[in-house]
Amino acid sequence: MPAALGWTVLALVFVDEVLAVWALAHVGGHLGGWPVGLLLAVSAVAVWWMFASPKAPWGGPIVRPVVKVVVFGSAVVGLFWTGHQAVGVALLVFSVVVNALAMLPSVAQLAESASDPGRP
């Protein structure tokens, strides 16, 4: 895969993560207004940073994918719960596709080289 296409995939993975946080903020807003929405969004970002980001201090080969499924699954279920079924399905499909593409060896190597500047 050309590097430009790989970087596009990685950018779409980031967009997907932002959409999941937005969805959780939206769900929190339905649960208890904007303070709950903000709390849910900040909590999702903190959990993602601790366990699912490329440089997560407590991530690992088992923890990272489990946390990703929990965050994206919560966002999709929350969208369904708030009456946004079409948006929930769209987020689910988009998440599965871009994260599957990100697992391709050429894209995964780009991500690893970006997180380790000393690597060629």
Alpha-carbon distance between the two ends? 17 Å
What general form does the structure show?
globular
Uncertain parts:
none
Instruction: Bin the strand percentage.
Output: under 5%
Estimated structural class? mainly alpha
Tally of separate domains: 1
The largest β sheet comes out as:
none
Mean pLDDT score, rounded? 93
Question: Could you tell me the radius of gyration in angstroms?
Answer: 15 Å
Helix content: over 70%
Count of alpha/pi helices: 5
The H-and-E topology, N to C, reads as HHHHH
User: Total strand count, please?
Assistant: 0
Give a structural overview.
The protein is mainly α and 120 residues long. It has one domain. It has helices spanning 3-32, 34-52, 63-81, 85-102, 105-115. The model has no long low-confidence stretch (mean pLDDT 93).
